[in-house]
Amino acid sequence: MSYQVLARKYRPHSFEELRGQEHVVQALANALTQQRLHHAYLFTGTRGVGKTTVSRILAKSLNCTGADGQGTITAHPCGVCESCRDIDAGRFVDYVELDAASNRGVEEISQLLDQAVYKPVVGRFKVYMIDEVHMLSNTAFNAMLKTLEEPPEYLKFVLATTDPQKVPVTVLSRCLQFNLRPMAPQTVLAHLTSVLQAESVPAEPGALRLLARAARGSMRDALSLTDQAIAFGAGQLQEAGVRQMLGTVDRGHVIAILNALVAASGPDVVAQADALRDLGLSAAGTLEDLASALQQIAVAQAAPAALDDADPDSAEARRLAAALPADEVQLMYSMALHGRAELGLAPDEYAGLLMVLLRMLAFRPGGAQLPRGEAPAAKPASAPLLRSTAAVAAVPIAAPAAAPAAVQPPRVAPAVQPLAAPVVALKVEEPKPATPPAARPAPVENDNSPSARLRPRPVVHAEPEPEADDGEPPPWLDAPMADDEGQALAAPSSSAPQAYASTAGNEPELQPTPEGERWHELVKTLGLTALARELAMQAQCLGEQGGSWRLRVERESLRQAALVDKLEAALSQALGSPQRVEPEAGVATDSPALREQAAALARQRAAEQIILQDPEVLRLMSQYRTARIVPGSIKPLNS
Predict the structure, then answer these.
(1) Contact in structure between 332 and 360 (CB atoms under 8 Å)
(2) How confident is the model at residue 488, as a pLDDT?
(3) Which end of the chain has a smaller Cβ tally under 10 Å, C or N?
């Protein structure tokens, strides 16, 4: 017999088995018991919280006939009658599940509503369950409005959606709406414990806590991850194996980062960030776990009894709660949350992680205090600018002279104590010397006539000093050339041209492989654009087997599921068969980007050699001693 996954094997078959949705169970159970049944129900909530399960249990409650065949509508379906068994097996004629994602047109909805005029075949009620109802088109919604408002007495509608905002208000107003909440980690942990006990699978409590947190409120995700963890651990769940499978950061690294922040030690913070980079751990996962740890610390400060004593992290949370003020915990928590959103804007995710941690350190009072008289090892970038502003304020401005006849020299500013941060030097312009009396124009007699006012005054030109003729050529002809940094270049010889500073750059760290060559040629034919093309260009192909491509990508922002899906679609279209991409973290050593960089480097150096070895260029360089080839002026034609 084939293996049945845990998510299907342990799907609840009654309201008593349903976990985490007590508010929905209570409302539906009371309605069934009192026979106050609505004709349309709308279940909303994220994936894996029980929307389809509640629909099936409701269908069984409406059509259960009891073990003796004499039952009626009940909140406790027997599960043994023919109707209950057929609904659980998915073969009950009067229970129809329609996937609106693939049947979203008006034709499919009209075909379904055409069958509504016929009474149930074997059951007491017909139940139409439309999953992902928000995917229906506007015409399909309009087609079902009348039937949804006044259906036959034997017809019940059950609608389910993960995005109720896209459902028209005309449909919402005709339904009884229930919002299924995400599961709490404690609820998921308790359910996983009972499932693994029933499966006789040994599991460490720490491994189950990791799975419960990774599920993010979805019971189906938790059971699917548990299936994967059982296979990964060869029949047992160990915390180290589950942490490796999920790619989560060991809580020890998070505690070490918090200890460095408490101690206000910049070198320790940088060392922890470098250690995470060396291990290839996720920067976004680190900030997520850091925010979770700070949340536990805040709870330990506000309500210590609310922490779970069985959780081994509670002891560290209480210790750090005594070492960190509450306002700093809140500030660091906010920085961790906003830092996750900034990782995609950073040069790389580890640089973004380091800046978030240094920001937390900079806003710590202990991180900004230094002993008086000591120069800091590193200052924020704004410190020199602030010191320069203070220095500017310390320089007094000379008052204007009282009489124009004599110009007073500027007063010298008092001595300023040396500052810890570098002070930008101020350029004080010396006053220009007064024009000597001999060079001044002769005074004009006082004449108020219009012609006198319009008459131009004579201009006296100073006699230029005679230049010394020593027989040397002008200095601008033999002036030494300087590079970009202002350093003088060596004078060229009369026989050899001046050496050209190549702009080709350093060789990329390319290690060619046959898989990389195949991947490079394949990427050229995919026609990708934007970030999906960037993913393909930055990826290193590690191998392909049976349509499954193993790619190594360093940047986590390029390993997003949406970009991987686009790459899979392009590969499938190009190769004519379904393809799958499995990205993993690591530094690529043979990617299309590296190959194109190496090719561009070779073209640049070839172009430079062509110019430098050209006979006409050699002749001109030998003929004119001051001739130079401007760095960066040589470009290949196909660049």
Answers:
(1) yes
(2) 54
(3) N
> How many CB atoms neighbour CB 389 within 10 A?
11
Beta bridge partners of 128: 96, 157
**What average pLDDT does the segment 465-483 reach?**
49
pLDDT band at 223 (very low <50, low <70, confident <90, very high): very high
In the numeric block, the tokens 């992902």 are attached to 132
311: left (phi over 0), alpha (psi -120 to 50) or beta: beta
Q: Tell me the pLDDT band of 458, cut-offs 50, 70 and 90.
A: low
CA distances from 112 to 138, 145, 184, 227, 560 (A): 16, 13, 37, 36, 38
User: Nearest to residue 504, comparing CAs of 594, 638, 593, 597?
Assistant: 597
pTM of the full structure: 0.52
Q: Label residue 123 exposed, middle or buried (CB < 10 Å: 0-12, 13-18, 19+).
A: buried
Q: In this structure, is the dihedral angle defined by the CA atoms of residues 598, 602, 604 and 605, taken in order, positive or negative?
A: positive
Token readout for 475 is: 């200095």
In whole angstroms, what separates CA 184 from the centre of its chain? Answer: 25
Per the CB < 8 A criterion, the answer to whether 119 and 153 are in contact is: no
What pLDDT, in 10s, does the model give residues 288-329?
889 989 998 999 999 888 887 777 778 888 889 888 889 999
DSSP letter for 121, please: S
Q: Yes or no: say if 179 and 160 are a contact pair by the CB < 8 Å rule.
A: no
The angle at the Cα of 334, spanning 558 to 251, to the nearest 5 degrees, equals: 70
Domains annotated for the chain, with CATH where assigned, are: 6-179 (3.40.50.300), 185-246 (1.10.8.60), 251-366 (1.20.272.10), 514-589 (3.30.300.150)
* Sequential DSSP letters for 555-610: -GGGG-HHHHHHHHHHHHHHHTS--EEEEEES--SS-HHHHHHHHHHHHHHHHHHH
What is residue 418's predicted lDDT score, i.e. its pLDDT? 41
- What pLDDT sits at residue 365? 67
CA separation for the pair 606, 44 (Å, rounded): 64
One-character DSSP codes across 450-471: HHHHHSPPP-PPPPPPPPP--S
Q: Which two tokens stand for residue 189?
A: 């942990």
Gap between the Cα atoms of 289 and 360, Å rounded: 15
CB of 286 closer than 8 Å to CB of 249: yes
DSSP class per residue in 280-332 = T--HHHHHHHHHHHHHHHHHHHH-GGGS-TTSTHHHHHHHHHHHS-HHHHHHH
Handedness of CA 561, 562, 565, 566 (dihedral sign): negative
Residue 599's pLDDT is: 84
For 434, the token pair is 């007064």
Phi, then psi, of 269 in degrees rounded to 5: -65, -45
pLDDT score for 130:
94
Task: Give the helix/strand (H/E) hosting 551.
Answer: strand 548-553
Task: Fill in the DSSP letter of residue 345.
Answer: G
